[in-house]
Amino acid sequence: MPEKYDELLQSIAELTETVKEHKGDQATIDVDKLAAEINGIIEQQVEAKLEQAEKDRPVRKGELIGPEGFAEPSTGVVQSGKFAGRKLMDVQFAGAFLKQAAQIDSKGVKPISADMEKLLTSDGSGTGDELVPTGMAASLWEDAFLASRVVGNLGVVAMPTDPWDWPLQFGAITWRKGTQGEATGSQDPATAKSTFTSTEQVADLAWTYNLDEDSVVAVMPNLRKELSRSAQEQMDAFTLNADATATSTGNINLDDSTPATDAYYLSEGQDGIRHYYLVDVTGQSTDITSTLEDAEWRAGIARLGKYGVNPNDVMAITNAKTYLISLMGMTNVRTLDKYGPGATILTGELARVDGIPIIVSESMPLAEDDGKVSATGSNNDEGQIALVNRQMWNVGFRRQMLIEVDRDIRKRQYIMVVSFRIAVGARNRTGTHTAGIHGITYS
Asked: Which of 89, 131, 427, 440 is deepest in the core (most CB within 10 A)?
């Protein structure tokens, strides 16, 4: 087990002990501060996973030819010149960005240096302009999936058209006794489908007119990290919270007001995981209006029926506060420090209850009694847990990450626009494969 995981498990163990010591007197602990620590632990978990993935990344021509400290120089790192020691992709992306900005405004952008130009025009497969900006986008996209707490644990499909009907399953298939020389009775089993309609997610990043290659290259590592992190959060948030309802009441993310036309969750037709148990099949979730006890947990799992039999197919998604105050007090909870991350660790997993992994996600909101979010923040003081059979949900992508550059002459800035198109769908909208527990109080 990597050293970083050892440190994370120690942090989880210490936090667990703190919560248990104050179980009967929560007023003596700062719950919000502990919740922030939980989210920090998950961020470290994500970073550790990405670092390990980088070490395990396969060797490709024109990229790394050995791990850090290897006897042979790595072509993944610039070996000489003013950018020596920098990641080649960071320098190449910065150069491509500056070139695009210069095409928009040749007078406002300083020409790139000979050292950068050389790295942009390197010969050979997998180098130079060939990697930019598509290579950066592909790398960011890969990291976003590795870091994802929700989407990374569901099925993912590439949408060939938009909208796209995905044939999901055949109806009941009848078997008959066969007799030599005689044909069996024919059958035409019915099929089910799920329609994916993608919704574009867009983010703008502003850059000053006074671009300088040294400053752009310097911020590239942090930019890559932040773009991967935010793309991961956005994929998860959409999958959990997508809702096509645009009226003044009814949207699960803004129940008592009209959503903004550019609200990320306002989908082009499909609805996400929370919508399933709060609106589509309301019997799949119950407002317990109390603290979470073992009985309420078992009732939630029971609503999954046959879809809750195999713990490996189920995951529970909640927020940090519900995890700390509610789940940590249950009888059958086992924290990650007790059973270890293992080879198939789910990002965001901090514990298991009855063998079901508990995924803590900042995208799961606090809400009102009915599990929906109010425009009045103080009304959103209760937690919820989504119980999901992972085999019954898929996330579709019509277009992966796209990075473009334009100029805003009014603000005297360059705009880097990052976008992707996402859809979410369940195998059916009437089954018991997804359930919820909402109205969880903390005292």
From this structure: 440
At residue 102, the pLDDT reads: 79
3-state secondary structure of 254: strand
Q: How many other CB atoms are found less than 10 A from the CB of residue 12?
A: 20
- Distance in angstroms (rounded) separating the CA atoms of residues 304 and 286: 13
Q: What are the residue boundaries of the structural domains of the chain, listed by start?
A: 157-169+191-211+232-319+361-443
- Strand-pairing partners, residue 387, are 316, 435
Contact (CB, 8 A) for 109 and 207: no
The segments of the chain whose pLDDT lies below 50 read 1, 59-75, 123-132, 343-344
Where do the H-state alpha helices sit in 247-335? 273-275, 294-302, 320-325
pLDDT of residue 81: 80
Q: 91: closest CA among 139, 131, 142, 58?
A: 131
- Name the pTM for this structure: 0.81
Sheet holding 333-335, edge to edge: 285-290, 434-440, 383-389, 314-318, 356-360, 349-353, 333-335
